[in-house]
Design goal:
Radius of gyration: 14 Å
Order of helices and strands: HHHHEE
Largest sheet: 2 strands, antiparallel
Structural class: alpha+beta
Number of domains: 1
Distance between the termini: 27 Å
Strand order of the largest sheet: 1-2
Strand content: 15-25%
Shape: globular
Length: 86
């Protein structure tokens, strides 16, 4: 949310951001005393309107399977499938 290079690395930035924030919110609920996680959420909330809006939605969806697109500067565009093994 704070590094402009992330938008180039993730061609589907909006989709990726929509997946990341619920994961952070879930982890914050599991570990409410994790100072580092608390500090990260605080910094992102302070410095990123996009993060703040998504965090405020209180979404905790978990994406167990799917695909993610990446744009690596040396390799080019990659689409990788993922499946949560938990």
């Amino acid at each position: 949310f704070l590094d402009p290079a992330a938008r180039r690395f993730y061609p589907d930035w909006e989709r990726f951001a929509d997946m990341c924030v619920p994961i952070l919110r879930t982890e914050a609920g599991r570990n409410p005393h994790d100072k580092d996680l608390h500090d990260l959420v605080g910094e992102l909330s302070t410095r990123s309107e996009e993060f703040r809006t998504r965090w405020g939605a209180h979404n905790v969806r978990h994406h167990g399977t799917g695909t993610k697109r990446f744009h690596h500067q040396a390799v080019g565009e990659l689409t990788l499938a993922f499946e949560d093994l938990e």
